[in-house]
């Protein structure tokens, strides 16, 4: 069994969080009235304001205000999420339950993930993929199991090999018109667009230099986007083991952020400092 300990103590983590949530010098003040002369309540690990007579903690009013675990465990869990550890592996590291880890992973997904500006150059490759899984259903009358195809989620993708960026969006309903609007929104008119022979991309010639390619002719012009789909699905199912339709937009946003920031240093405190 693997054990990971945080290199920072609780007091050191509190000091870093003060600098993040109370800039510029990390001086505490009342989150209700703004008074600096507040009093500490050691038994409750909270603070008391003599002006408005209200109590608050260091993380009150922030996205970490409702956490119920020690700060050292929080940092280990954030480190595991950034480094794409699976749910089961994170359970071994933190001794937390499956439900708790999923709840904190969603908290990180909503607050740590940032949108990266998509800046294509030269040419882009567009394609659509379907995320989901097969559902196994037993047939009690015939004594065998069969697979029933579950409704999958359509995700549109635009990749730029020259800059190594990827833009993704969940498509609701019929994919034709929303995908074209997504391409026109993200890609300038002077950029060449490569796609497969699908009818979804037939009307792009009016606004872009559109070159339609099939998989038999010119596969090298769509190889990068196919590699992006393989990369995103492998990362998704290795960490979460499933794709929830309810949180499809959140998963896609996280995968887009992970792909565009895959070369950055992975330090939990560095990501927390970006939230200020």
Overview of this protein structure:
The chain is of the alpha+beta class and 276 residues long. The chain is elongated and about 70 Å long. The chain contains eight helices and ten strands. Helix 6 (223-239) packs across helix 7. The protein has two domains: 10-114, no CATH class; 123-260, Nucleotidyltransferase, domain 5. The strands form three sheets. It has a five-stranded mixed sheet, sandwiched between helices. Strands 1-2-3 form a three-stranded antiparallel sheet, with no helix packed on it. Strands 5-6 form a two-stranded antiparallel ribbon. It has helices spanning 10-21, 71-82, 87-94, 98-111, 176-186, 223-239, 248-260, 268-273; strands spanning 39-41, 46-48, 55-56, 123-131, 134-139, 144-149, 153-160, 165-171, 192-195, 209-212. Strand 7 and strand 8 form a beta hairpin.
List keywords for this structure.
single chain, 276 residues, alpha+beta, three-stranded antiparallel beta sheet, 10 strands, 34% helix, elongated
């Amino acid at each position: 069994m693997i054990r990971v300990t945080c290199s920072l103590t609780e007091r050191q983590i509190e000091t870093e969080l003060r600098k993040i949530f109370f800039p510029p010098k990390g001086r505490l003040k009342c989150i209700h009235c703004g008074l600096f002369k507040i009093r500490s309540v050691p038994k409750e690990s909270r603070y008391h304001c003599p002006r408005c007579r209200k109590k608050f903690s260091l993380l009150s009013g922030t996205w970490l205000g409702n956490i119920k675990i020690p700060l050292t465990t929080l940092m280990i869990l954030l480190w595991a999420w950034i480094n794409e550890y699976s749910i089961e592996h994170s359970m071994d590291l933190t001794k937390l339950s499956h439900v708790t880890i999923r709840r904190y992973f969603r908290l990180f997904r909503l607050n740590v993930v940032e949108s990266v500006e998509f800046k294509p150059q030269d040419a882009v490759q567009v394609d659509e993929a379907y995320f989901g899984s097969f559902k196994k259903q037993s047939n009690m009358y015939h004594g065998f199991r069969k697979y029933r195809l579950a409704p999958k989620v359509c995700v549109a993708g635009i990749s730029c090999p020259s800059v190594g960026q990827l833009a993704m969006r969940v498509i609701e309903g019929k994919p034709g018109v929303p995908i074209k609007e997504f391409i026109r929104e993200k890609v300038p008119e002077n950029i060449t667009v490569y796609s497969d022979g699908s009818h979804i991309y037939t009307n792009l010639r009016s606004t872009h230099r559109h070159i339609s390619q099939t998989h038999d002719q010119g596969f090298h012009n769509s190889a990068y986007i196919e590699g992006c789909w393989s990369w995103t699905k492998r990362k998704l199912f290795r960490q979460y083991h499933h794709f929830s339709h309810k949180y499809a937009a959140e998963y896609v946003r996280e995968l887009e952020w992970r792909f565009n920031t895959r070369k950055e240093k992975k330090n939990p405190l560095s990501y927390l400092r970006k939230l200020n």
